[in-house]
Write a structure and sequence with these properties.
By secondary structure, the chain is mainly beta. It contains no helices and 9 strands. It has one domain: Sandwich (Immunoglobulin-like). Helices cover 0% and strands 57% of the residues.
Length: 110
């Protein structure tokens, strides 16, 4: 399953992966608007539960760019990070919390 939407500066693509690797079905991330924004400075998430989570940003080839450990609350959260060095292109944002994993593909155009 994939969902596409466009804002002023970014085209977002949300993907759910095969059940044996990563899935959004039983995810801790809210099914609607799970990833609200991704930019070179901020990742905005909508979480179902509070707690510690790991956010990994990967290249389209799967190389880890940055790993962040964050304490977050249920609901909308902004995660600050430094991706100013990133060129235009596709990236994966993978989120892990309490044994649940979700990955989302994003494309930066600006």
């Amino acid at each position: 399953m994939s969902r596409f939407w466009v804002t002023n500066f970014f085209v977002f693509v949300q993907m759910a992966f095969a059940a044996d690797s990563v899935t959004a079905k039983d995810s801790f991330v809210s099914q609607s608007n799970a990833m609200l924004a991704f930019s070179r400075t901020k990742i905005v998430l909508d979480l179902k539960i509070s707690g510690r989570l790991e956010v990994n940003v990967l290249t389209a080839k799967g190389q880890k760019i940055q790993s962040l450990q964050v304490e977050a609350v249920a609901g909308k959260n902004g995660v600050e990070w430094n991706g100013n060095f990133l060129p235009r292109g596709s990236y994966f944002v993978c989120i892990s919390q309490k044994g649940n994993d979700s990955c989302y593909k994003w494309t930066l155009y600006e």
